[in-house]
Fold this protein.
Amino acid sequence: MLVDFNLKEQFKVWKRAGKPIPKEYFDLGIAFWLLDPDAGDYSPERVAQQYLQTPFSDSEKTRTQLRAYAEKKLKEYKLEKIFWDMEMPLLEILADMELAGIGIDRGYLRALEKELEKRLETLTKAIYKHAGETFNINSPKQLGEILFQRLKIDTQGVKKTKTGKVSTDIDTLLLIQDRHKIIASLLEYRELFKLLSTYIRPLQELADDQGRVHTHYIQTGTATGRLSSQNPNLQNIPIGSEWATKLRTAFVAEKGYRIAAFDYSQIELRILASLTQDPEMMKAFNENVDIHALTASKVFKVAIAKVTPEMRRLGKTLNFGVVYGMGAMAFAKSSGVSFADARKFITEYFNDFKQIKIWQEEIKAQARTYGYVTNLNGRRRIILGAAGMGREVAEGERAAINMPIQSMNADIMKLAVIRIAKELKKSGWYQKEVRLLLTIHDELLFEINEHIIEEATRIITKAMESVYALRVPIKVTKKIGENWGAYE
DNA sequence: TATGAGGGCGCC
DNA sequence: AAACGGCGCCCTCATA
């Protein structure tokens, strides 16, 4: 059997050369990642040093030793199924996705770049004028001096960075927005500069000569089982703002194809409902009730029909906050209510969804007792600090609460990808008429030949919704368009 | 010239 | 004072 590190890169080379991929293979980095997904570094050097207590030598013998050790541990930790049925099949699919890449319209991006540069120049001049001098707007240090010393903007309520300087982050700028005219220009400058430097310019650089960009998925990149994406990271492309939509418009389907996005709807909350078996939350999903409105109606004690958009917004923040183990401070900050009110809402929330609180306590106890937590499929994460005291305990507890949810999400997505690839291979469409391009945690992005789009859509939706049985239904929404920015 | 910390910010 | 889980990447600036 083929045993090595970085098989995905190897497979890409072979696939490009038309060489077949072996039936069975064992990726060492992924195996050691499953054993301790927090370690961060799964290089042959680190792994050999830690597990064999010897520097890595690229030999059959070393690889066999590492495999023997990893297999023993995978078995001991009951991670074999995840390794063989999820991670190994996924590896080859990721290679296919990376090879496919996603098309970008380089001419359009270039035009967008020019437009942004022009606007940024105007903003820069306006900022200098307000400041009365030129300075490096991108330097938080210099910007802080301009705002709070030279312009003497009131620092009432402005937070400090960890090195004790006044912050100039977006929250601060919004807070002091009414205190000086310069702030409006700064806010716009920040958004545009980010877009230009992080996305618009690098994407053009990274496109191949066909105008396609090929991200690299890191299968060992997270502690929860998610994938990460780099060079470029296509999992954090802006969404929502006007400029973000313009940027997404640059991601285009090939002629005769469409971009199709499939989204798991509120998957993490469905997982939460399923794991906790909270009767109220399960009922909501089983009856297709708007979950954020339901939460609002409970904590505000009004009928669902009487829930205002503002109340629903708070309900949504609460629901997501629970998934992350949020405290009153964070809730107050992100929702805008007072600290006292935040505490009341959270108390009320756990009163309404009693099982959620119980479940959270169970998970925390697990982390304390064993030093790790697992999800339903056996994926594990070591939680340090949960047995100690102080800030680190709280951090460990939050990570512990989030892990079973986020990792289950990751598992469902991985299983869906594997199922979809299998289904598509039956018709011969796999990575031809139907190309899986991106996975973005709860979303899959495809490029699909318009002639078969309806049939393909049915196959994909069905696979995603049925690949894993939760105690509540899993729902998928789809969006189709000729690019990633505008849907039909 | 390279590196890494710090500040900041994009996404789910 | 006070960060809510998981990521990757940009620029600045001090240091090597």
The radius of gyration of chain A is 25 Å. Residues 104-213 of chain A form a domain with the Taq DNA Polymerase; Chain T, domain 4 fold (CATH 1.20.1060.10). Chain A has 19 helices and 13 strands. The first helix of chain A runs from residue 7 to 16.
